[in-house]
Amino acid sequence: MDKNNEKLIITGGKPLYGEIAVDTSKNAVLPILAASILNSGKTVLHNIMPITDAYNMLNILSTLGCTYKWENNDLHINCVNAHSWEIPQDLAKEIRSSIFMLGSILSRFRAAKVSYPGGCDIGIRPIDLHLKGLKDLNVKIKEEHGFIICDGTNMKGGNVHLDYPSVGATENLIMAAALTEGITEIRNAAKEPEITDLQNFINCMGGKISGAGTSTITIQGVETLKDCEYTPIPDRIIGGTYLIACAICGGKIRITNFLSEHLYSLIAKLRESGCEFNITPTYIDIECKQRPLTAQIIETLPYPGFPTDLQAPMTALQTISDGTCMIIENMFETRFKHCPELIKMGANITVRDRMAIIRGVSHLQGAEVNAMDLRGGAALILAGLAAKGTTVINNINHIDRGYFNVEEKFNSLGGDIQRIS
Ligand code: EPZ
Description:
This protein is α+β, with helices and mostly antiparallel strands and 421 residues long. It contains 14 helices and 23 strands. The site of ligand EPZ has 27 residues, from helix 1, helix 5, helix 6 and helix 12.
């Protein structure tokens, strides 16, 4: 079966009811997979879903000499025989997170060669902050023929101030410093929960990292790390996608394996939309009994601000609100590619650069649409679940990068989605 030609057929218009558990976080698992090479031994990760991006990272680790096996949802990784420090171009271009292999490879081998990374086409995706921070750790870097060639022979701990709290740059530098002699301090660091999870994973291997979740992270380099078993945090973006699905379709659902403190920004916005919540430390109930009220203004910001990865699903919700909403996408240059597709379904959206003005309509109509990136694809699923009639979504390989068995998940809540090729 050609995975690139698969489609989702959605019959919309039904409210959602039931209970669903959130998978572990893609954006925690990817840096943790990169960090597994820091240990010249074995790592066991629990509850790992076989999403495409995880396979892409495992292919990179295999190229470097690591081996792995999946037993149910437990991923066993052995990096004892890792020997290479060069990531092939065809693998690097598949995924953005190939770039944060730089830090872990440098930490272990004191050398690294990687081409410019791939990932979702949502903007320029520069890596200047990654490279500038590595230079602050005395890494010598050449950029030739599309490759980044690093010499870490004389790496040492140092002070890095990030011009912008980049998630990937923060993660890369944590990994670069983990096995590098001396103390490294990262200031203006990103504060996303996935960074705290990376700190906790490396400390589980015997690392000495503190401050993750704040703007200043301190890493004391150690000589070696040890085997460990670890369960990454729940995926707050998947959990948020389910919350917004209930808001756009109506109904009442319980989401388990969910940490509400990771999504207070979204919960506040959904309260503005008229949703009601029952929040506990491990699950959340949401009930939406009416047409969504407009959220008025949504601005994507670094954590704990509103997450850019939920901008597209939230845009879908606002298309049927009772008013007008302005969405400002501060993080990426071209992250409104789902809007022309939503317009095919009857949405009233005007996009100007990084701003979208959405005037709510009474309902969406099913149509044939194309997923253009991971979260934009998720937005189209939510729109299809709410629309009157049938929606066909093409290019769902984008969605499979971050949502495992997405149709089964929503069908368990009363959705009607079929995958065909
Ligand atoms: C991570 O991407 C996530 N990906 C993204 O999720 C998420 O949208 C993003 O963080 C923001 O939260 C993974 O964790 C694998 P950034 P990353 O570096 O690290 C600028 C998804 O859908 N920047 O925080 O690439 C950049 O242009 C994906 O799961 C520089 O200018 O995000 C952007 O405007 C999409 N120079 C801003 O920072 C740099 O060197 C945020 O980027 C690096 C970044």
